[in-house]
């Protein structure tokens, strides 16, 4: 029974490792979802606060407008009373003036010696008629007072009417804005409720996963196992996740196994075997150090970049080893280097050389990346007019934007943060830009160059994904050369003919000279599976040449 149980334990070991991996993946997904949820909730809260501020501001404006209308009405009433008072005073003044004039006329008639010569009857009739005119005028005046006592001047009325109309329009506009803000507020509340439901669901899923998942591995146990003790393990594990730590452990285990081997078995002469590994029998393990392998790979790249690159990279690699170590030891060094670069996937120099050597990348990818880094360093040197090796953060941002005009602002921000800039730091802080391009003794680049490389890979993936969406086909469907040409020109209108032909040549594996023109009918006969075309383009140096034109807004 003990033997049977031991067998069961051995059989369950892979399942345990698989459960650990699944648990880590689930934890990472949950952490990512929680981070995304927190960012969305904080963004919604900020937007809600902004909307509440806008509503308060609109309410304050409404209250101020109402108070202004009340003030205007009060002013209008005061002006009306003042005009009424002035009118009454004017009428009284006119009556007094008429009375004084009549008295003066009576006095002049009484003092005039010739007045007694007129006919008294005539004077009586004139007096009677004057009194009748006065009574009629007084009646008309009373009628005018009764009819137009509450009338204001037309000019004032039109002015007040215009002011009232403007205030009414402003009030209507504020009401419409208030309704829109209320609608947006309701939508935000609904979105907030749905977010809360999703959060509760994720929280319950997290609890369920935490209840059923296995505990995380204790990586501290590796300190006593890895060569170099705790200090070296802390240096290897710094900033790495569980998956990367597994790679580190595999490399450490592989190094020990590789050093124990004295010979490698030859793989034969089959067509599937790379030319630099075609050999029968056994070859010696040269057992170089990791640093020796890295220096050898750097020398190979220098020699490759210096020549015309007519031969294939695998043939060049074998010829390089023959020139360096002689034909007798070339094959042994080829197997030794191949096993080392296949093992050390975490090392930048080895992993890139392995990808190019095995045909996963075109060597133009590596060459173009090195040219980009060299050009960026040259631009920084040109900006450094004092040749002090120092740049301000503002100058660094300007150089990055001019060198990479199609990168988004957040990508430029990531590069600056990788270079040592922090949001709390000032733009006047100085940076030693030569340190951004330095390498350690194992050929590892600084975070700035690594971030530049990761952004290039992400941009290539986005570019190819955009191409796939533009084609609108499934990966297993066939696609013709004209459709790929049209899709490339749509997503990247600035593509020149030479670059476009190189992309098509890579995708359809045709020489550039044999590519048909757009007007030729036989272009419809050239078809390929979409997945194959995208995989071939993934191997090449694919970059965006210009921004995509925005569709016109209807």
SSE blueprint and pairings:
Layout: H1 2-111, H2 120-148, H3 154-212, H4 229-237, H5 242-260, E1 263-265, E2 282-284, H6 290-306, H7 313-325, H8 327-343, H9 348-357, H10 363-383, E3 390-392, H11 393-403, H12 409-418, E4 430-432, H13 447-471, E5 478-480, H14 481-491, H15 497-508, E6 527-529, H16 530-539
Antiparallel strand pairs: 1-2, 3-4, 5-6
Helix pairs in contact: 1-3, 7-8, 8-9, 10-11, 11-12, 12-13, 13-14, 13-16, 15-16
Pfam family, one: TSNAXIP1_N
Organism: Pteropus vampyrus (Large flying fox)
Protein name: Translin-associated factor X-interacting protein 1 isoform X3
**Strand line-up of the largest beta sheet:** 1-2
Strand residue percentage: under 5%
Helix content: 55-70%
> How many E strands?
6
Q: What is the SS-derived class?
A: mainly alpha
Provide a descriptive summary of the structure in words.
This protein is mainly α and 554 residues long. Among the domains are: 1-61; 261-360, no CATH class; 371-461; 472-553, no CATH class. Helices cover 69% and strands 3% of the residues. It has helices spanning 2-111, 120-148, 154-212, 229-237, 242-260, 290-306, 313-325, 327-343, 348-357, 363-383, 393-403, 409-418, 447-471, 481-491, 497-508, 530-539; strands spanning 263-265, 282-284, 390-392, 430-432, 478-480, 527-529. It has a two-stranded antiparallel ribbon with strand order 1-2. The longest helix has 110 residues, at 2-111. The chain is elongated and about 165 Å long. The mean pLDDT is 82.
